[in-house]
Design a protein that fits this description.
It is built from five helices and seven strands, in the order αββαβββαααββ. α1 packs across α2. By secondary structure, it is of the alpha+beta class.
């Protein structure tokens, strides 16, 4: 058994929504062969609790707007360290980077096939972590201050 087209459509919308909020290391696994309760897992992470909540909210909003679906269960919002969104066909895990490292869902499900993702979501794997401002808001790459070049300045 493999993930259905509908599950793949949900994964694509959710992954793009996570990428739009600068989630990193976005990955999806087809777990339909080993679990009978769902087709796929989407895993994304962020550097702080506030961004974890923001990513989860964006995923919910986009899935409601584009596919007219709502999660049947949502857990972990109060703590903001690991939010689980259960859409029956897929389960979304938005984790703080520390929880992602500790619980290592990627390693647990590594034997399951990866599902294709939108380009923005795939690009999130090249971003070791997202940058944030003092308030914890995610910054786009263009907003991040360039690395210090140790005093070398252009005096032209």
């Amino acid at each position: 058994m493999t993930a259905t087209e509908h599950s793949q459509e949900i994964i694509n919308v959710a992954a793009q929504a996570a990428a739009d909020k600068l989630a990193h290391n976005i990955i999806a696994f087809d777990v339909s062969d080993v679990l009978s309760i769902t087709d796929a897992f989407l895993i994304a992470s962020a550097n702080n609790d506030r961004q974890v909540k923001s990513i989860a909210e964006e995923i919910e909003d986009k899935l409601r707007e584009q596919l007219d679906i709502k999660p049947v269960r949502r857990e972990g919002e109060r703590e903001g360290r690991w939010i689980l969104l259960d859409y029956l066909d897929i389960v979304v895990h938005v984790q703080h980077s520390e929880e992602r490292s500790f619980y290592s869902l990627d390693r647990l499900w590594k034997d399951c096939p990866e599902l294709p993702l939108p380009a923005d979501a795939l690009a999130s794997r090249n971003r070791p972590d997202a940058h944030t401002d003092e308030a914890g808001n995610a910054l786009a790459p263009a907003e991040v201050a360039p690395a210090d070049n140790f005093g070398a300045e252009d005096y032209s």
